[in-house]
Specification:
The complex is a heterodimer.
Chain A (H helix, E strand, L loop, with lengths): L4 E12 L2 E13 L4 E5 L6 H8 L8 E10 L2 E2 L5 H7 L4 E4 L13 H12 L5 H14 L5 H4 L9 H13 L5 E5 L7 H18 L2 E6 L2 H7 L2 E6 L2 E7 H6 L4 H8 L41 H4 L5 E4 L2 E3 L14
Parallel strand pairs in A: 3-8, 3-9, 6-7, 7-8
Antiparallel strand pairs in A: 1-2, 1-4, 4-5, 9-10, 10-12, 11-12
Chain B lengths: L3 H10 L8 H11 L1 H18 L1 H4 L32 H37 L1 H16 L2 H12 L3 H28 L2 H8 L4 H9 L4 H24 L11 H11 L5 H28 L7
Classes of the chains: A alpha/beta, B mainly alpha.
Amino acid sequence: MGALLEIDNLQTHFFTSGGTVKAVDGVSYDVNAGETVAVVGESGSGKSVTALSILRLIPKPPGEIVGGEIRFQGKNLAFCSEEEIRDIRGKDISMIFQEPMTSLNPVLSIGMQLTEPMLAHLPGMTEEAAKEKAVKLLEMVGINEPRRRIDQYPHHLSGGMRQRVMIAMSLACEPKLIIADEPTTALDVTIQAQILELMKNLTREMGVAMIIITHNLGVVARYADRVNVMYAGRIVETGKAADIYHRPRHPYTLALLKSVPRMDQPRQEKLDPVEGQPPDLTRLDGGCSFRPRCKFAEDRCAKSFPELEEMGEDHYSACFRSKEALSEIEL
Amino acid sequence: MVTPSEIQVEAEFEEVAAKKPWGQVCKDLMRKQPLGTFGLAIVLVMIVTAIFADYIAPHDPIQEDFSAMFAEPGHESYPLGTDEFGRDILSRLVHGSRTALMVGFICAIVGATLGMVIGVASAFFGGLFDLLLQRVLDVFMAFPLIILALAVVATLGPGIQNVMIAIIIPFVPQCARVVRSNALAIREIPYVDAARALGFSNSRIILRHMVPNVMAPYLIMLTTFLGQAILLEASLSFLGLGVQDPIPAWGLMLTNASEFFEGSPWLAIYPGVAISLSVFGFNLFGDAVRDTLDPKLRSR
C-alpha cells in the first residue's frame, strides 16, 4: 500500500522571456495518511510552486509541469483532465492560503462561502444540511456565536478569525489532505500559535494529512512529523522533524537553523544569517546550487549535483560532505 | 482555544452601521449629491409617467382630430397643441416616455450585463482568448456609436426590436472594456485562486465570485448607458430607422415636426425638451452613482 500522496521527480518550469525558470526541478516526497509534512525553504525555493502543482494551480502560461508524477491515491494528478482535478480540489485535497485578509471573497457572506464547496462537491447535500454543517465547522475552529457569524461578511472578522474560517472551509468536505501555504505568515505572532495549534488538533482528530509550507523553523519543530528542506527547486534534506532539528546533515539546513534564535539552546553571541542571495533559477549549472553560499564547498561541488544519500533511518541529505564534515553536529 | 479578548473586540466592531430611517437617507443624499437627487427626481417622474401613461395622458395618443390640426399650445383641450393629424402632443409625449424608457432600460441592462460577463470572462481566462476577444471588441469600438447602430438597423431593418439590438451591440464592447480592467485586478486577489483551489467550475467562479466584485463599474456603465440609449433611440427614430408611426416616440415626433417647424415650432420644441430633460436627468443620476461608487472620487 503506497502513501496517500506520492510526488515523484516533479518538474515545474516557468517559461519567461528571461529564460526558463526551473522553479521545481526533480522534487520527490511522500505524504502518508494522517501525517503532517513540513516543506521548508527560503522565498523562491520552489516550495509553494510544488504545492500549487499538486492542485494544478500553476498559471499556464508561463508555468507548466514538464515532468514527473503526482500520485494521489494512485491517480496521477499531474496529467489528468481538468474535470478530474476539479473533482479533487476542495473535496479530497483542499488548500489554505497565506493571506487570510484577501482569501475570502468580500461580497459573499461567511455562510455562503462555507456551504458552497459542500453544495458543489457532495451530491445530495441540501442547503439546510450544509448550513448546519457550516455552523458546526465554525464551532470546531473556535468561532463564537457561529449562527450569527454565518450571515456576516469577511470585513466583520479579524485576520485570525478569517484564517479560522479558511480552515473551516478547507475541512468542509472532509478532505484527506490539506495543503497550508504559509498559513500563519500574515498573522500576529500571538495568533500564529493558536492557529497552528488548532490545525494540528483538527487534523489529528479527523485523521487528515497536511502539507505545511513555511519558512518558520519553529513551526516545523513543533507541528511537523517529517520535514523536507528545499533549496533552488530541489529537496536538499529530508527526515523526521527531530532529526532535522537536532542533527542537520546538509549545510543549508544547518545555516537555516543557525539563523534563527532558539529557545531550547543557550543564548548565542549573535545570530548567523545565511549570507548571499538565492541563485537565479534561470542560470543553474550542473553543480550544487548552494555552493556559492556554502561554508563547506569544495571543487567537486561544482562538477555535479549531489544526490540524496541516506544519513540515518528515514533521513536523507544531498551533500557530498554530509558524512564527513557534518556527521558529528548535534544541535 | 479562542481568547476572550479577541471575541470582545470583534463584538464591538459589529452593527456599526445601524439602519437609518428613509427620511434621513433622503436628506443625506440631497446634501451630498444635490444634482444627483435632481436627476433621480427627473428619472422617477419619467418612470411614474411611463407606468401611468394611460391615466395621465388626456387623450389617446394616436387619436386623430381633424377639426383641430396644428392647434397651438394653450388650446382648450390640447394644452401643448396638436400635430398635423390633430393628435395631442402632450398625450404623445406621455406615451412616448414608455418607448424611451423601455428602450433605455432594456438596452442599458442587456448591453451592460453582456459586456460585464464578457469582460470578466476575458480577464479570467486571459492569454490568447483575452487577446483575440479584445481585438474583436476593438473593431466594434472603432465605429462611432451612431454609425454602428445605423449599420445594424440598415442590415436588420427598422422596428423597435431591431433598434434595441442596434443600440445594445455598441454598448457591449464599451462595458466589456471597462469591466475587464477591473476584473484583471480582481483576478490577482487570492480569493479567486482560493475558489479555484476549492474545485469550482470556471463559470461558477466568473458569475458568483468575480461578477459581484465588479458591480461598481457595472452600475456606472449602466447608468451612463440609460441616457445614451434614449438619445440613440431618438436619433434612430428621427432618421426614420427606429420606431415607426403611429407608435408615439420622441425622435419620431421630431422627424414629423421638421416639415412643419417654421409654422408650428411647438411640434419640435416639446419632444426636444423631453429628450434633453430625460437624458440630462439620467446623466446627472449616473454621475452621482459614479461619484458614490468610485472610492477615488469620494471626498468623505
